[in-house]
Amino acid sequence: MSKQLKRIILEMGTGNDLYGMDYTKAARRAVQDAIHHSSLTLFKSLDIDPDTMEIELNVAAQEPEKIDLQAAAAELPYGRVTPKAVFGGLNIYDDVTDRTSVIVNVGIIVRLPL
């Protein structure tokens, strides 16, 4: 009997690049921010292989097409990742320095066959 995928985890994170308008750098930082808020002891406690995770990585930025999704997904150490970029995040322009800081948000949804 095949087990159904069940959503068990939602983590959110925020990352930024203050000087380079590098959306990928901000996205990678957002993923790191999200996963560093967790300690997923359930895998060891329940003897579940963490590579069985199906991970939906949602990345939101003002210019989502500028994100290297594979680089952002590579920040996740386990599981099969399906990344998706959408419009969101925030750009903040500084007229004194003529620079734009970018803020990227991520939502990481994890499903397991249970």
Automatic annotation (TrEMBL):
Gene3D superfamilies: Tubulin/FtsZ, C-terminal domain. Keywords: GTP-binding, Nucleotide-binding. It holds the Pfam family Lin0512_fam. InterPro entries: CHP02058, Tubulin/FtsZ-like_C. PANTHER family: 50S RIBOSOMAL PROTEIN L34 (PTHR34784:SF1). This is Lin0512 family protein. It comes from Pseudahrensia aquimaris.
